[in-house]
Design a protein that fits this description.
This protein has one domain. The protein is built from 11 helices and 4 strands, in the order H-H-H-H-H-H-H-H-H-H-E-E-E-E-H. Helix 5 packs antiparallel against helix 7. Helix content is 73%, strand content 4%. A hairpin with a 2-residue loop joins strand 2 and strand 3. The chain has 309 residues and is mainly α. It is found in: Cell membrane. Pfam families: CobD_Cbib. This is Cobalamin biosynthesis protein CobD.
Length: 309
C-alpha cells in the first residue's frame, strides 16, 4: 500500500500547503535549463536533444540515487521522502488558485480583472477577449493542466516511483519552455516537445477517460472520438475534447496569439463557457483525483494480497 499511501499524502500536502512559495524546485530547474539553452542554442535538433539530456538526465540520476538510499531507511522515512517529491511535482491546488480568480472576476463583471487573471495562466493575448472567451481560456487551462500537473505526475509516480515522476515533471517543464513552433525553438525545441508527447501518451488518454467517467460520459466519449484528432497536439486533443464534452460546454475556436488570431477547431458541445464552467472544470479534476487515488489503493491492496497468498 506504500505507493498509494504516498500519493494520498502528497495530494493532502498540496491541498494544505499549495505550491512552495519560496525555492520551488521547478523554478530552480527553469534557471538551470535557461542557462543551458543560452549556451547550447542553435537551429539544430541534435543540439536540442543534447541540451535536453544535460538539463534533465543528471537530476533524474540524482533522484534515482536518493531514492535508492531512502529505501534503506525505515519505511516511514522513505515514504515521507517520496511524498515530498511527489508533492513538489503536482499542482492540484494551484489550478484552483489560478483559475478561481477568473471565475470570481467574471461573476463580478470585471473583465479587466478577468483578463489579468487569465493572462497569468495562458500564453494567448487577453486584451480583446470577451467574457465567454476568457471563461473558455481558463477552462481549457484547467483541463489541460489537469493532465500535465496532476494526472501525468501521479501516473509516472505510481508506475516508476520517484525517478519516474522527476523525469516526467522536468520533461514537461522543458516542453513549456522550449516546445514552441517559433523561429527560435522550432528545431532546438523539437526534442523537448516530442519527448513530452511520448511521456504523455498514456497519461493523456487516461485523463480523458477520467473526465468522461466523472462528467457527462456519453458527450465526453462522442467529443473525444469526433474532435480530438483535429487538434494540433496529439495529447491535448483527447484531454480537452473529452473534458469539454464532460462539462457539456463549447471550447476551442479561434484565439489570439502574438497579435494574430490562430484558427483552432471547436471542442465540446452544449452551452457557451462561463464562470460556472471554470468552477465545474476544477471539480471535474478534483473528482478525477479521488477516483485515481481510490483505484490506486484498491490495486495496491490487491497486489499485496496476491503476493502473500
Amino acid at each position: 500500500m506504500i505507493a498509494a499511501a504516498v500519493a494520498i499524502a502528497a495530494v493532502a500536502l498540496d491541498a494544505v500547503l499549495g505550491e512552495p512559495r519560496r525555492a520551488h524546485p521547478l523554478v530552480a530547474f527553469g534557471r538551470w535549463a535557461g542557462w543551458i539553452e543560452r549556451h547550447l542554442h542553435a537551429g539544430c535538433r541534435l543540439r536540442g536533444l543534447l541540451a535536453w539530456s544535460l538539463a534533465v538526465l543528471p537530476w533524474v540520476g540524482v533522484a534515482w540515487a536518493l531514492d535508492a538510499f531512502a529505501r534503506q531507511l525505515p519505511t516511514w522515512l522513505s515514504a515521507a521522502y517520496a511524498a515530498l517529491v511527489l508533492y513538489a511535482a503536482i499542482g492540484l491546488r494551484s489550478l484552483g488558485d489560478h483559475a478561481r480568480p477568473v471565475a470570481d472576476a467574471l461573476d463580478a463583471g470585471d473583465l479587466d480583472a478577468a483578463r489579468a487573471a487569465v493572462g497569468r495562466i495562458v500564453s494567448r493575448d487577453t486584451g480583446a477577449l470577451s467574457s465567454g472567451q476568457l471563461a473558455a481560456a481558463a477552462t481549457e487551462s484547467v483541463l489541460e493542466n489537469g493532465c500535465d500537473a496532476v494526472f501525468g505526475a501521479l501516473f509516472w509516480f505510481l508506475l516508476l516511483g520517484v525517478p519516474g515522476v522527476v523525469l516526467y515533471r522536468l520533461a514537461n517543464t522543458l516542453d513549456a519552455m522550449w516546445g514552441y513552433r517559433t523561429p527560435r525553438f522550432a528545431r532546438f525545441g523539437w526534442a523537448a516537445a516530442r519527448i513530452d508527447d511520448a511521456l504523455n501518451l498514456l497519461p493523456a488518454r487516461l485523463t480523458a477517460a477520467t473526465y468522461a467517467l466523472c462528467g457527462h460520459t456519453a458527450s465526453a466519449w462522442h467529443c473525444w472520438r469526433r474532435q480530438a484528432g483535429a487538434w494540433d497536439s496529439p495529447n491535448a486533443g483527447p484531454v480537452m475534447a473529452a473534458g469539454a464534452g464532460a462539462l457539456r460546454t463549447c471550447l476551442g475556436g479561434p484565439a489570439p496569439y502574438h497579435g494574430r488570431w490562430k484558427a483552432r477547431p471547436p471542442l465540446g458541445e452544449g452551452q457557451p463557457p462561463d464562470a460556472i464552467a471554470v468552477r465545474r472544470a476544477l471539480v471535474l479534476v478534483r473528482n478525477g483525483v479521488v477516483v485515481w487515488l481510490a483505484v490506486a489503493s484498491v490495486a495496491t491492496f490487491a497486489l499485496e494480497a496476491w503476493r502473500h497468498a
